[in-house]
Write a structure and sequence with these properties.
Layout lengths: L6 H11 L2 H5 L1 H12 L5 E5 L5 H8 L3 E6 L2 H14 L4 E4 L11 E6 L10 H14 E11 L2 H7 L4 E4 L5 E9 L4 E10 L2 E10 L3 H10 L3 E6 L14 E6 L3
Parallel strand pairs: 1-2, 1-4, 2-3, 4-5
Antiparallel strand pairs: 5-11, 6-7, 7-8, 8-9, 10-11
């Protein structure tokens, strides 16, 4: 089993990955995405939608939204969120490498570092080609990941975070394969008990991500340092790529 197929990973880490402030930030982030992409279509694909925070925010603005994720646990949280917001979203349990609905979406999103999880880089390229296939002509794709430049600048061998519920969250990253991949060990310690989760994924620089998008047929690829559209430079917090499928 791949780490991202393990429902226990998402269930146990959910309160720490999706804290209330992160969930509530989705509304502002969707407004930023709409402004950055200059999106004027109607159909949105939220790929690796997780608990549906962006899907629900798009739907509340009147868009037709499809949220895709392979985690049944996260899709259950997404359905709850949509019900609370009183919005309609189509939820699909599927693998991002295989979800196929050609020319069905005007905007596709892949947010919160939900890219690069697979063992072979060709699988990442398969995802990008599939996304392009699923876009309409003149459709736009936006990605939001942690860039390699940012990771190298702030890298620490270990980081410890205390949560209000008494949990101690320890992160221990290790760079692999000449800075192509990163291996993470996350440990949750609470009430004298601990759980350890290990996973790894590819990391991309701005140039590497831009080149891969272009190689998969995207055009007009632009990089930003956040969803607000800040320049992608030394102080960039995130690596955001906006790419278009031009007929």
């Amino acid at each position: 089993m791949n780490w991202f197929e393990d429902e226990a990973f998402w269930r146990e880490l959910y309160p720490y990955m999706f804290a209330p402030e992160r969930l509530s930030a989705a509304d502002a982030e969707v407004d930023q995405i709409l402004a950055l992409t200059k999106f004027s279509g109607s159909k949105v694909l939220d790929l690796c939608c997780g608990p549906g925070r962006h899907s629900a925010a798009f739907a509340s603005r009147g868009f037709q939204v499809t949220g895709v994720d392979r985690s049944r646990f996260l899709l259950e949280r997404a359905r709850e969120r949509a019900a609370e917001a009183n919005v309609n979203v189509e939820w699909v349990e599927d693998d991002m490498r295989h979800f196929s609905r050609p020319a069905a979406f005007d905007l596709a999103c892949c947010l919160f570092t939900s890219f690069g999880y697979f063992e072979e880089e060709d699988e990442d390229l398969q995802v990008l080609r599939r996304v392009r296939e699923n876009l309409t002509n003149d459709g736009v794709f936006i990605m939001d990941v942690l860039g390699k430049e940012r990771l190298a600048r702030v890298f620490k061998d270990a980081q410890c975070t205390d949560f209000p519920d008494g949990t101690i969250f320890l992160q221990r990253p290790q760079v692999l394969d000449d800075w192509r991949r990163i291996r993470n060990e996350w440990m949750l310690l609470k009430d004298s008990k601990y759980r350890t989760f290990r996973f790894e994924h590819f990391i991309y620089s701005g140039r590497e991500l831009s080149d891969r998008l272009a190689a998969c047929g995207f055009q007009d690829v632009r990089l930003y340092g956040d969803l607000k559209g800040s320049p992608y430079g030394l102080e960039a917090m995130r690596l955001v790529a906006v790419a278009r499928k031009i007929a």
